[in-house]
Amino acid sequence: MNEWAFWGCLPFLAVAFLTDTLTMKIPNWITAPAVLMGFLAQGLSGGWKGVLFAGAGAAAGFLPLLLMHVLGAVGAGDVKLFAGIGAWTGYFFTIQVIVYSLLFAAAIGWIIVLKRREGFRRLRSVARLLTGIFYMPKWTLFKSRDGDMLRFPFMLAVVPGAAAAFLGGWI
Length: 171
Fold this sequence. Notes:
Blueprint: H1 3-23, H2 28-70, H3 76-89, H4 91-115, H5 119-135, H6 155-168
Helix pairs in contact: 1-2, 1-3, 1-6, 2-3, 2-4, 3-4, 4-6
Keywords: Membrane, Transmembrane, Transmembrane helix
GO cellular component, one term: plasma membrane
């Protein structure tokens, strides 16, 4: 990934961060230009190789997040935003951002659980879920009731995840 690609992607991340933290949504007016501008920037800098680079990156961001969306872990805006991140920065950097973002999301989730003092209840819920998977596997076991879901804006984890991936390339 070229350093300019990260800096080109950063304004989209900043605006997505603001809208996600305020409304828990990332609208299409952010994600569509992120994807299109990523393809355009890579195409202008690298020709058809740049377009293929952007396509591979967009797929690397879109497909894993689509699976997470189907499981109820992230919203559709996050899926499209990661396609934009991938179009700008390519598949390798995008995979790194996904991994770091999931690590930050896990840490944020546990901080919230501990702050609410519901750690034991959550652990019992996970134990029941695992027991249910072994005795009667159904896809509905992966979906929990809305009151049981721990929700926070995923961009709270994506921004530090992107920073960690960017800084990790320099270490």
